[in-house]
Amino acid sequence: MDGLARILERATLHYRKTPAIRDNVARMDYGELAGRVVRLAGALQANGLRPGDRVAILARNSFRYIEVALACAQAGIILVPLNIRLASAEIDSILARVEARLLFQALPYSPKGVEAITWDDDRPPGSESAYEQLIGADIVLEQAVPSGLDDVAQIFFTSGTTGEPKGACLTQRNLIASSLDSIIALNLNAQDVWFHSAPMFHLVDAFAIWAVSMVGGLHVTAHFEPATFAETVAREGITKASLPPTLLDMIAKHPNTARHDVGSLDLISYGGSPMPRAVYDRTKTALRCHLVQAYGITEAAGLVCQQYPHDVDPDNPTRQNSVGQPVLHVNLKVIDDDGNAQPAGVIGELAVSGAHVMAGYWRDEAATAKAMHDGWYRTGDLGVYDDQGHFTIVGRKKDMIITGGENVYPAEVENALLLHPAVAEAAVFGVPSERWGEEVRAVVLPVDGAAIDGPTLIEHCRTLIAGYKIPKTIGLVAEPLPKSGPGKIAKALVRAAYLKEAVA
Asked: Does domain 400-503 correspond to CATH entry 3.30.300.30?
């Protein structure tokens, strides 16, 4: 197994004249892309950056984001992608913690004590900017800096919903293994046109920088807009993408989608939250392509499980909610609180080992030791697998509700609620109860124009799940539920708002 730098070298050798990038301001083949990347890498080295130094990036999707990732790999520099939704204080904290030497920046932000290399996404290659000046200096890195497979390549910071964000240190081996598994799972090849529509600062899309380049596919980058998704698909001949259900629903509902020919689309991988049946049906009707569910975590370089098209059975709710089987370089098991492996049909915590699993959290030995046990990363996610090895996620361990001595998994209740055609979004959580210890509560966003109430939804749930799992009350909201990460409902915020309103 070679390191990340080999990806660009191989693409240059085999796909030099093959189109590599399409952006709203740029078109280039792999030869042209490689020429810019080695000049950027050379400029970084000439400006004193050394292997192992940390460089951060704060930007939306663009061809330059891909260039930065590839250039850091060539120079042996550790890249730290920053969530563009973070507050300035949070960015300040991350930059200080990793001791960043440089910040690549295309969004408004005033870094403290870190040099910024800026550009404007609306300007083409060669335009006036600090970024283009680096490439224009024409300092070529003639040979990639040697890197070991266990060297840290990138640091992705978790969302921090349960405390200060932790930096997952992903090695060359982690990212290579994840890319190889993505190629197999998504059947990526040189004819594919990948739409980088989900954010590149998150592994839901970042893996494709490496995987698509490995096979000589075409990268199309854009800022996500539901109104222009189908237009971009039609114009560029998009074949594949990865998006969360919330964004897919926006695309399916937008009137512009039906106005364009999306026949080039072959497959979309989705994950991060359950796909309501109504959303699945809407998306399938609108985009007419394979929809396959995945399960991934930052600490395992993104991909852990992936459905294949032949796994999907819309008439089988159990299989429909499955995230598929573990990919090639992943070992996955269900364990109890003592770490004992559980058989098929028994719910427990998911533990992961193999080439995908991170080296640890950045300079946080305590957090690393807590998460890693005998080479297995304990995800905090609860899941179950069937007799054919297909896994289903039932919730977060910390979110599990214990009511009257019975375990209730929020995802199971949410899936029941989402089967009602009037429900667009649902969040289920526990609240303190003198009688039961905890009670199940839910907050629901109705489908636009739908007339629904809590008691009706409770009766709906009675036909699907046990009585002790049914929410005692269901609150209705008029606005979409808050999200953290790419389309994942921020349940802690929903619960806090619910409790605040209940006390008021």
From this structure: yes
